[in-house]
Every structure is written in structure tokens, then in C-alpha cells.
Amino acid sequence: MAIPDLTHPGAVKYAVLVDVGYLYAAAGEVLLGAKERREYRVAADELIKTLQRHAEERLPGELLRVYWYDAARDRVPTVDQRVIAALPMVKVRLGNLNARGQQKGVDAQIRTDLEALARHRAVTDAVLVAGDEDMVPAVEAAQAYGVRVHLWGVEPPYGTNQAERLVWESDTVEVLSAEFIRPYFSRAAVIPAPPQAPSPAQVFAGRTATKPVVRPPQTGVTKLGPSRPRVEEVGEHVAQKWILTRGRDNIRDLLPGPILPTVIDTELLIEAEKELGHSLRPYPEARVWLRDGFWARVYREFDIGVGISSK
Known about the structure:
Radius of gyration: 24 Å
CATH topology of the largest domain: Rossmann fold
Number of domains: 2
Strand content: 15-25%
Number of helices: 13
Strand order of the largest sheet: 5-4-3-1-6-7-8
Largest sheet: 7 strands, mixed
CATH architecture of the largest domain: 3-Layer(aba) Sandwich
InterPro entries: NYN
Pfam family, one: NYN
Protein name: NYN domain-containing protein
GO molecular function, one term: RNA nuclease activity
């Protein structure tokens, strides 16, 4: 197979394969001294766009897609993973996350995809963001089919965070500086300890002191829609189901709220409409009530003070 001429962009077609476990761990360590993912937040969508632009500068050709390899408990995607999966030109691949927080099956997925892309000549070049020596056989297999492999790593705080043999076998090697990735990582906000439960006297005293909320008359369209108590009930029910099926850790990623990522907000709407048996889209107030019910259940789950509304 002839080696493509990089001076002609049309001759180059590439994919970007990202081992998220390596990328996040290496970045968390050099930027924040963090050892666990829950210690920091990542603006993954912006980070992916930046990686795409960086690859375009290095490989002036056609991007096939970005492969985003991560892990989740029982392979149930987290909130962040669902948002990433909705991005254009991005394919999320999930391995399993065991009880000790260890990723299982991720390396195998990367190796399988890299070899398949090369064997079917789907790409001429592959950008690999990884550090594990287990990637070496896949790199060698891809190169045997004529694909160039460009290894990217994250600047380590000291020494190296990539296997020496993986560095040797790659066609080019680049280290992404701490400053390059810094804008996308921030320390996670600490959720305050739950306040002590108020006494009945305090609860009723607070209610007495609170002025009643005077709401404007509802329009005729809203009157034809579902009732507020019913919609809030459905919102709480969806939240309860998600806590049970997706896990408390995944729902915790939504905090502190009350704004939901667009993808998650759409999922909430769809599930609520299924339960109600009709659409809520003509009723803007009903969507607000739905979010109120959802957050009421989530805040109770994590013992966060009441009174927070999405309005």
C-alpha cells in the first residue's frame, strides 16, 4: 500500500482514538494532583472539539470520527457520557467499571477498532491518545496494513506516563502540554454536608412567615394541559427510576443543578410523556413543573435543602 502524500489533504483520512481513562487520570494528576475522577470536572465536549482542531492542524485531511473509550458500571452511560455520545463525529465506546473503580474491556475495544480500521483501509493515519503498553500489538498490526500511528500523551508532572515501548513503536509522538488541556479541567465542587432536619415548630414557623405566591392567571392553553401535581409527580417518578437504574453516582453528576444538560432534559421530557400518555411540548409551564418534580426527588436523595427551583 502506497504511503499517502501529506501535501495533498484529500489523500489523508484519519481517526482519533482516545483512552479517556488515561487522558483524565494524567490530566487530573498534572493539573490538580488528583487521584480519582470524582475530584474534578471535565468540559469534555469542548475538550473533544479542541482535540479535533489540533488533529486537523497536524493531519490536513478528512476526519473519519473520534472514538471515545470510557467505562461505566454495567456499561450504563453516565450523564456526561450521554452528552458526549450526542456530539457529531464522536463514537462513545464503553467498557465495564467494576466495584473497585477499575476499567475492564476498554483496551480490548481500542485494539479491535484500530486493527479493524487499518485492515479495512478506512484510514491512512490514526491518532492514539493512550499510554498503556497493551496498545503495542494493535499499533504494530495497524502499521503492517500501512497506517501511520501518531501517539499523543499528556505532559507528566515528572518522569513519564506512557509505556516506553509504545512510544518506540509509534510513528510520531507528541506531548500535550498542561496549558493545552488546563481550560477543560476544574476541581469538583464539594457538596456541603446536609443540614440537620428542622423541628416541626421550625417548619411551621417558616411556613407562617412565608408570603403566599400569587401566580398570574393561566392561559387557556395551559388549562387544557395536565395538572401541576400530576406533572411534578411524574418528574419525581422519573428521577427515582434513574437513581435506581443509572445509580446515585451518575445522578450526582447533575448536581448542583437546577439546569439540566440538553440531552438529559430531552430524555426527561420523553420519559415523562410516555408515562403521561401525551405530549407536554405545547405546555411550557408543564415542562417547568416536570423539572421541579425531578429536582425535588434528586435533592431529597442527597439531603440538599429544599426550596431550590428550576424557575
